[in-house]
Amino acid sequence: MWLRNNALAASAALAAVLLASAIALIAFYVPVDADQGLSQKIFYFHVPIALTAYACFGWGAWKALRHLWKRQEGADLESYVAIHLGVIFGAMTLLTGSIWARASWGVWWAWSSKQLVLFLVLFLFYCAYFMLRFSVEPGPRRANLSAVYALFGVVLIPISFLAIRLAEDFIHPTVFTSNGPQMSGSMFFTFCVSWAAMLATFGALYRLELAGKRIDARMRELRELLA
Amino acid sequence: MTSGEKYVAAAYLVVFLTLLVYVVIIASKLQRLEAALTDLVERVRARG
Amino acid sequence: MTIRARGLAMRYGAKRVFEGLDLDVEPGGFVLVTGPNGSGKTTLMRLISGLVLPTAGELEVDSDRARLGFLAHEPLVYRELTALENLELYGRLYRVPERRERIGMLLERFDLWDARSERTGSFSRGMLQRLALCRVFLHEPSLLLLDEPFSALDAEGAALLDRELAARRGRSTFLVATHDPERLEPLATGRLAFA
Amino acid sequence: MSGYLSDVAALARKDLLLELRGRDTLPAMLLFVASALVIFHFALPSGTGELAGLGLLWVAIVFTALLGLSRAFVAEREQGVLDGLVLAPSDRSAIWLGKAIAAFAFLALAEVVALPLFALFFSSVDGATVAGVVLADVGICAVGVFLAAMSIATRARELLLPVLFLPLAIPLIVGGVGASVTENPGRYLGFLALYDLLFATICWASFEYVVAE
Predict the structure, then answer these.
(1) Structural domains counted in chain B
(2) How far apart are CA A24 and CA A30, in angstroms?
(3) Rounded to two decimals, what is the model's pTM?
């Protein structure tokens, strides 16, 4: 238990330090982008959050595989928490993305931004994960169904990415490219720090929520024993 | 504040608020856990 | 040991169905499982059949699905299909040799031959139970899990079943959940009572 | 392998037989797709081009399929027969594959009516569209039947199927519409084939966990 508690504290501290330095770098160190202007600075949070959301879904799928394949104890709970955080990061991606679209192109939603559209599809998919999970009694059946659905999700990510790219041709091929401006040295460094900060935040929140859920599970066990 | 600054501030505020709401939810869950624990302790004590 | 259970427990959320159950059934054994409704007889059957996993304890069943026969509360037949079509389906899935002859013989033996081409939706509960028995005996399983086999059977049906059970005593292994153990007492080699 | 195929054949045969007896899913799908196309006619104002019609064809196909898929495991669940199939010695993915083949047959039959009707009401249907429809049907039935088995195991039952299915159907819509709308449909047909391959494999590999613990 000692290592687990301290891992939580350590990861939280790491996340805090990285977040603080990322914000400091974004605010003071990195130059304002020449053509896009100040609003380009949203990019340093928007894209790292999106990449972290992918990491959450990937981690959730990995834990789901561990549950199905190796019957690893607790893997189902970890898969659920990872996907839960994935949806939260996904929501933030959509929000910051739409603010960025508003700032750069004057519209609150840009179908041309492949990244945003992909996230919308994944967001719909993973919200259905929770509808599935909460309509089955806790137990091995629920763990299996959730795990299989999580695996579907990780297959859906590349497929949807390809589909959206293919859809470009016949929906409305517009000129705005959305894969971000070319990054100079300092920009790239800030981007990496910000990404590391987001991943560390995921790690900290992941351990935090897991700790809470494990205590909750043990509490239920205790209550049943006393019943 | 130029419109650019407003949007940047809005974006970062949204991220900050989302994380804050998340932490608050986790905190309230922990409080409920604590209450459940004290209730259980009393039940054991009542069992004597 | 055909079935070996140590400290077996089953819980649905807060509801404890049973726990700490030990059970040994040697090949050819005939164990009677008794106890009031909802005491866990059916759950134990579903555990041994492999349909559900126990929440705790160990369970080893020396029988693969091809040699397992499970008579549940449900007859497990499609009401839209006829008796023949249902047994035809199971016959294929269990790769029963000389499928048609065996189906005909079983339907004859359980007095369902005349109703063989009728939709099982029109069957009475007793006829459905007999059809389920045909389904269970179709692939001549070596391990038979029978959950209240005599329910809904009339005197004649019950006599048919008695004959089938007696004919297989010692050759197949039985675990039979029942409410009147006296009837099967002469065949029993072991008993398991649920509180 | 031949044993597996005979199991799949037995299960698919059973589903076709059930439909022949029950005769409820297929007529419903046929009437549904016909009335959907009529509704689309009124939904398209005069100015819209031919492409909008083709796009709506795909909407009709997906929702007709959804109607059929929501019936996929109803017989097993209501009469509790699924345990019987799960207890059988055959590989559990045969249950999925048998049901998917039957679902494909029903969907194809519905489309045999829907496509000519579409050509009548809207615009002609070229070879690429038909190829796209066939390839998309494979994906729809493979994933749809899998999700139908999942949703049957939940409290919400068929209500959950559209919620689970539609996000996964988005790439199929893109592939299908792309195949029927653009000049070089090859890329889209290839994409549909990739989708079918990927998802059929994962369905085949993990169906065991949907019906058994």
Answers:
(1) 1
(2) 9
(3) 0.91
